[in-house]
Amino acid sequence: MIDSESGSKYLDFLYVEGERLGWIFRDRNCYRYRFPEPYPTLEPVRDEVFFDAATAGVDKWRRMRRWVGIGFGVTVVLLCLGIVGQGPSTDLRVILAIGLAVMVGGAWLSWSNSRSAEAGPEREREKQLRRYEAECAWWEERREQFDAEERERVSGYLEWGAALLPPTTRRVDIVGGSVWSWEALLTVMGASMLRTRGAMTLVDFSGEAACHELVWLARAVSVDVTAVRLPDQVGETTLFSRMDGRGLVDSLVEAMHGDAPAGRRADRAQDDRILSSVCRALGEDVTIHRIAAAVGVLLDEPGDFPELSEAEREHITDSLFADEFRRQAHPNLRRIESHLYPLRELFAATDQGQGQHDLGKPGLTCLVYENAGHNVREELLKELVFQGLVQRLTSPEPFVGPLVVAGADDLSHRHIERLTDLCTRRGVRLVLMFRHLRDSAVRAVGADVVAFMRLSNHEEAARAADFIGRQHTFVLSQLTRTLGGSQTHSQGNSLGFSDQTSGAWPGRVSVGRSWTHTRTVADSVNWNDSQSEQRVYEYVVEPRTLQDLPDYALIEVTQGTGRLSVRSVECNPDIVSLPRVTTGPLPDLPLPHPSQAAVQPSGEPSAPPLNLPGQPGPPGQPRPAYDDDDESEWADEHYPEEWR
After folding, report:
1. Alpha-helical runs (H) found in 242-394
2. Whole-prediction pTM value?
3. Which residue ranges are recorded for the region named Disordered (predicted)?
């Protein structure tokens, strides 16, 4: 991890070696362990206490009656002793008081003991609740201490790591997004490519100057920057000035017939013959400006055509083609002239020897297309510049650094394939950026690494999901739970008295008494838990996910490594101002077992881990700081003014 103490050093986080698309977020809390001790449980009241309470409730009145009988018996005994004179002579009132005291005191004592036994379950429940609350408080204290130690342990872990491109990557396709997201991606990716390769050629066809922030950054770190505005300054580059007649003819023909079907090959061959003959007539000095003038002479257009000498005009008029050929080829000549006419003024600088900006040299070279309007002239110029890149790659001159084409939607599929083959042969990394996944982009993407940004259109999102593919997963299809129980509780008591008088002994009383108490408790619980799984074939990434991606998020898909690799990447340049950021990949750290992890990570490709901090706004507007404990204050204090 590289620390930064001032805002001016934030550029060092971007201008570092290692070609990257952005950063990958990994929550450091996923490495925290869960407190291993189980939560305290509340013990149930013992069955013996319930049994004693039930028994006391049944025996309460029997015991009270017993004490009444005892008191009555004491009174009778004292009276008898006083009558026969064998005991102390006591007043009748005293004897009655003693008997009543024994009777009431015993009954009250029996009633108190029974009430105490009946309240036994409640007292034990309160006692267990107090013990449970104490154990819970102690458990919470230990857990908080354990969590604090775990947070301290993982506080130094990195959270943002670079999403480096595989070293064998030959081509990168960027699909979707907006102007803001392209600007952020070009800044992050372009800065790393400049530092790693030492050079980069960027052709910006977006019409919104998405490379503006990258140009500013390159100049801030003292990188040579060559910026050419298209279409006004197209003639000031060496893209066409160093091209021979054959290269110019091929470029013009392919540009004019870029979107033509294969059945128009005859027209392409006819145009190639006409332009080749014109170039031979012009000799060594062949430029687009002079070719346009020669075609105008063939059509007998009015004007002096100062680009051509008198001898060249006579040769083109009288000797280049027969009159019959010119008559039959007049539609082709008219079409060629209509394509070349708007290019005459644009390439006047090339004829005057002003072409000075070379492509593929050290530093940053940007061809920026500034007009956002779509018309025939602009489409022709895009195709022509693209063909110039193809011819530049076929030349023996070395081409340094990667080639980035932003806004390749209008380019022909076969031309993109040709450029890909040339870049692969020359060892030049090619980056193509498409705003939409349609037309030629549908057929072109997928050569190597593909990164999908937000695709608002549902059809394009569905195509992207189909491109990423599907996978077999096992999902829960049925869940059955059965809970059954039965409980039986019965109580019974019986109390009986019997009196009988024997005939042989008059006055003799025989008393018989029987008492029984029965309590039966039966509990039974039946539990059945079953589930079944079903194999389904689902999208790795759902189309809805691609439609809801934030502005600065992208889903990188890498194929050709034996397995499909899908990961979520954040390309916001302001991430370098956050703590715990590294310019290299995140270290491989062992994750705790899911049963021991405090936070369960989400690793499902269909739901990429986009739980990033608050998504920043478009470039040029303040981006919110990272809201994590005290780190928001850190970001406010260290946030560079030039990044606001």
Report:
1. 245-256, 265-282, 288-298, 310-318, 323-328, 330-340, 348-351, 376-394
2. 0.71
3. 586-644
